[in-house]
Protein 1
Amino acid sequence: MSHKMDLAFCPGMHTPADQGKTLALYRQLGASSVQLYIDWKEVEKTPGVFEWSSYDQEVENLRAYDLKMGPFLIIGPWYVTPQFVRDEPGMVMYRCVEHHRDSAIPSLWCPNIRQHVRRFMRAFADHFLAEDILQFVILGISGDYGEGLYPVVGNGPGAYHGHPGHWCADPLAVADLQRWLRSQYNGSIQELNRAWKTRYGAFEDVLPFIRRDAPSERAYLELIRWYRQSMTDYCDFWMRTTAEIFPGIPAYLCTGGLMLPEHGADFSAQVRVASRTGAGVRVTNEYSDYCTNFMQTRLVNSAGRGYGAFTSHEPAATVTPAGVAGRIFNAVSGGCSQLFSYPGAYIDSTPAIHEGGEVFKRYRRLLVQRKPVVPVAVFYPDADRVLRSAVSLDRFPLALRRVVDFDLVDENMIQDELLDRYTFLIVADAPVMQAGTLERIDSWVKKGGVLFNVNCMVADIEGKEDVWRNLNGFTPQTDRHYGITSQQILKPDLLPRYTQAQPHFATLPNSTIGGYQPSPTPTKGRGEWFLTSV
């Protein structure tokens, strides 16, 4: 069963001269709701005294055009946080690892900010819930503009210390890291030292570090695992609080970035905690290029359908008329419940609908929430991206999308057994996975899953390749192949277009991994497997 997608637009009607013209155009374009940014510092200038009059007027404007409100409750980033909150006794700010300087953004490890989150949410709900005007609420928990991230570049140059980096050097964060490591290593600093290749005398000696100072790859992977889990736990607190205070109102967590390690966002984990309270996630990563949008949003969409959370897309830059069509296709094919847009994509300053708006009107009938059938999954190599701080999108998935639709699955999803939703798994350029992930893939193949291995030999964090070699049918005599080699298509009926493009040759790029010659036949009972090189 399909449902009409919620179309949410940004305000753009604050000037007195507008007199509702923009809202009328929103209705003409098919909007169902308008997102309003709730500015905490303007609402609560004096502690405990809330002034909602400007938003009361916005509510009346929306009612006049039969539109609902989607409040963006931003509580934490510098540009909305009242100064009295930063100045209160016991408030702790994020502190960067590189310079040991504080930001002006409250640290998620500080219990004070959590009390403010609950207090402000309750005040907003007490004032607006009875108005029956809320279509959804979107949660701005941290980051520069409210995303589920740590500070990235800042939004007030010179106003406070801000830069890309690791923001976990405040005393509360350091104590939490040490507590987490103690639980991971059964209270034994000797076990941690063996795993990390270090010589710490006690857990209290372990301090956060950046990539270049990491004592080992495992140490950095585990630091980022804790760093991300801390942000995910904070998201979980927000989602549970929202479900309690706004029962029955759809809630979206706002997230973004490229899942770089210093950002601290773990997209699938954020989707997982959202699903526990019947909520969703909006990812703010879209541009005008469809393939880029696909790669930057599909992990959230795949996790949403796997865990049972709804999803939404938001652009991070200007959207061209062609990009409008691409965004519509990306939302529908990803199974989104909402498409959020800024007015500039459709409306000029007159205001009047321009070419992008005409494109939107032409295709808006397609904006229906669907349940896509996607049997193909591509592995998202998160551990490798963490170790390399990879920013660019892999060329292979981008090229593959021109041939077949696919979902992205990461290690969280595989270890939660969401791989069972798929018939095919493609693993490309993923040199490292957790041992538990390799074991899950091995179990999935034994049950009949089809694995495509593209130029890839995978080891666990300790460097062991045994599971992957056995999974692919490699024997002790299996040798490396370099240069140009012919390819045999084992299942021509599964790849008809490729099979017709005779002959089949492959050559390896500049790579230290190389290709591998498999044993002549798959291991009995292990399902089908394929090996190719690009």
Protein 2
Amino acid sequence: MPGILVADDLPVIRTGIIHILTQYQVPLQPFIEAADGADAVQMARRHKPDIILMDIKMPKLDGLQAISMIRAEQPDVKVVMLTAYNEFSYLQKALKLSVRDYLLKPIRPAKLIELLEEIQKEIHEERRNLRTIEMVKDSLQKTLPVIEANLVETLIRGTNAEGVTTEESLAFLGKRLSRPAVFVGKLDDYDNIAQEKSAAQLQKIYLSLVEIVRHVLPEPQHALVGYSKPGRVIVILSCEQHLATVEQLRALADKIRQAINAEMSLTVTIGIGNVYSGWEAIPLSYAEANLARRYQSRKTGNAIFHVAEVLAASIDRTDDTSYRIQHEQDLIHSIQNNDQERAMRLANEIVDYLTQRFKTNPEGFKNSCAELVMLIAWAVIGTGIEQHNVLKISHHQVMNLNSQQNMQEVRTWTMNSLAEFLAVLQVRTHKKNAVSQAVEYLQANYRRANISLQEVADAVYLSQSYLAWQFKATLGVSYVKYLTSLRIEEAKRLLRNTDLSIVAIAEKVGYPNVTNFYRHFQRLQGTTPAAYRQKEA
């Protein structure tokens, strides 16, 4: 409770001070007495006064010791020391304890009342400022999720708020992002859920989804969580160390899926996009994650799917519910095979489908067309066109989307965007086949143990998932099998033509672990390296 604590070992001084406080009707009551330093500490702990009038010299604990202990528990309490002229050295120590002021004994009533009035004004001002700060904090806490959701929308669309940089927005939110990848999660059977719930109930479901996701994230300060379409949660993650691989991303997505199921008794399908080096590529990862999520939701739902699995998977052409994903996959392949006539036809058919699906929801139609254009941009990058150039075109197109007034204008905008991307493909007529380039790169570097699919994809300006798909489609074997065959063929040559030890040969062909070398050699050749050497000798 508020009040004034008077601590002095002389009863006559305590009585005199309290008489002055009562006579001048000082409003900060009650008036509490303490006979020594130890008593003052106990009284301060019990009553939590606004002001303490503390004598310096007292038994048990002196005033300085008592104030030091009280300050540790109540750092904001106002302290006035009571001192005599010959105690000035003590007063210097008191000032180091952040005492508000001091009064010389004998105490003059006018001086005491004047000082207390000043302190009372300070207390009122500090409390008013504190209330203002708390109000601002409360308002900010309510606003931050909205700001975060808006930033997510900006990043996945590839737009930038005028005058505000991504760095500034992230700093305001206390976030840091590097090497981003996107998760898109959608509640299974959301359309039926929406029909049974009010707008307020749906908003509550969304807020619960976001809170569950934030709780599961290992480092929330390295992630953004937002909301794009009804029933969907979007997560943009920093993918460093513990989130560096597809397996680690899948494990985190599965934790999110399980948490939502456990806490809300709802199932969710989550699509995962690739990891990119910069923020400007977030729309690409979003397009991939959305494609993966949509593909899986057409199958069983309540699952995790990475975009690489979409390119490697086959579509059930007899399933009418897979119409959009079938056409999207065909569109990607048409673009990457530079079959422009077929790409235009497929894009038209997808837009026709979206027109019917969103005929009463123009905003939903616009968002879906924006996602289609970003998917097209992703497919174009997969052909080997430099990512920066494609993103520059897509950014320009997306910025123009806001000026489209109706569904027909949005349709025209979508087809014009596709035409612009296809024109870029036309220019690239003399570029070497990307798989041939990748093969050449592997033949020159397969001896390095740490060579990765990502490194090869970067070398030929393809996405990792698309290169994996192209390897399988063009050569009939996966990237891993092709790399293994290169290494084993070179190992066979060395076994036949040199006296190098098997351990040395293993290292020369990229297997620092000789056990792995033995395992791969025997699987492909049906015999051990030693037996092979003896047979070929």
Protein 3
Amino acid sequence: MILIDIMNNTIIINESSSCLKPNQISQMYFWGFVKESEHGLYQLSSRSIESILPKLLNYFDKEEISFSLSDSCQEYLTKLNRIRDALKKVIDLGMKYKNGDFKNTGFTEFSSFVRSNIPRSLKDHQLKAAFHLYLVQNGANFSVPGSGKTAAVLSVYEKLKSEGKVNLIYVVGPPACFGPWQVEFELTLGRTPNVKILAGGDHIQRKLEYYRPTTQKAELYLTTYQTLLNDQIEVKTFLTQSGTKAFLVIDEAHYIKQLGGSWADAVLQISEYAQYRCILTGTPIPRSYTDVFNMFDVLWPNSKPIDEVTKKKIEIHQENNDIASAKKILKEVIGPLFYRVRKSDLNLIPPVFHPPYILSMNKYERLLYDAVENKIRDYSKQDYLRNIDIVRKLIRARIIRLRQCVSYPGLLATALKEYEESLLEDKSDISQIISDYDSLEQPAKLQFLTKLVTKLQKQNQKVVIWAHFIGTLKLITKHLTQKGYMCKLIYGETPTEQTSIDEEETREKIRNEFMDLESGLNILVANPAACGESISLHKTCYHAIYYDLSYNCAQYLQSLDRIHRVGGSEINQANYHFLQYKNTIDQDILFNLDKKASRMYELIEEDYNIYSLDMFEEDEDIEAYHRLFGGE
């Protein structure tokens, strides 16, 4: 008789009597078993043994193969069946709830608890999302940015804490989420938490925090994906300590979508040690249906809702462009486990997109733009003689040069990484204009910006000014400061809040100062790459000025949401202003951003559509080049 054993996450089959037929052995090889000896010992080491073991046993029964289970295998199977029964029950509850069946779900009791114990009044859509998470225990909130996901999760945490099921929240996310979590905790739960930020800093001191006695533990822990990667052993120890009952929250969970990625693996390694789990992201399926695989493996690490066979089916349907079949499978296996609030559910006042301000370039700006554009046209005629990969790199760099022209011509003096093609090397007079530009004129956009900011300041309006190039950001900040305005800058080099930083101004401190109506800081200058995610400005700022734009629609949409969100935009209208140079790349960028944004919002209103909020920026540059300059 065959003995099936489990040891160290490995299935071991002892088939010493050689009773397996060749076709049966082939089936085992297909599942990944490896023959370890001539005496019929087969082993399978895999994270997916929870899906392979039941299939193996069913196959042996079907083939009438006699087998017995070791004590450890029987114990594992009993545990697996218990977890799967729990998951099946949760899936049934989640599906009934999402279909509108509130009977016997406990919604009334949960709502009563929230009204009596949560100081912050939740919106209806937040309450429904919160109860869904409470109902399914380990769930996902895929609601659109600005819908109040953090407040919903904190309400569930407080309910579980009152039941003695959890006693702390452990949040993994980008550094930009640290400030909002602390602010939202106090606003939602009405108390200031004992917070530990375990990111960066002295790694020895940081890791010591994981070994503090239960009586000295904090209530809110915040760490980054990169730090978690370095601290996996310590985090496992922390989560398994006696007295630790952690609610694990993976914020901006699209960071773990990459299958086999180091950040994803780090999260997968620790997830099973938490009592409850939650993932948050407004962009769950950026490029492929496979993007959700890791997320739901994290939520149910010991009984994956999407098993290996189902994953392969989804991949095949997607490769064959059979989207309907892929969506049908996903709806069945994970639909009950996530909740999504759509933009249309938020009851926000529609924002105002003011008609773009179409400006004429000043003398030297126009001269430089035309010179660069003409040189690109000349170069493009010879591109067919070059290697295609080289051409693609050149195209992206040329588009950047055009964007620099409509942002701040002084940027043309700086070199671009891996780009040696000189658009102006044979025109010494042009090169001189670039080097002397600041003494020759101010950009027309900067002059108009000053007038627009002055108008808004007279109306006591705070304003955020978006631009993409660091040189432009610094130019705007310096100019407005010299005009007597108080403004501050957030861009990629601005430090984020970490335990090792206590004197430098951080993004969070600047943001908080900007949000304070009495601070005197009424102008924030920022680039979407640094300030487009996790930071909310909507409670005191209702005007955003786009000094320049890129083709990256992800950053564009995220920046729009900074001033159009739940908790302010129900009564205050968001206003967007765009500065555009006449007859330039500016018009092409804005037109295509608007077109893509409209398409994205339509798709976001549906479940399971693949919509890239990474937004193919590189491909967009190439497409833009062909629109503007022709060619294949």
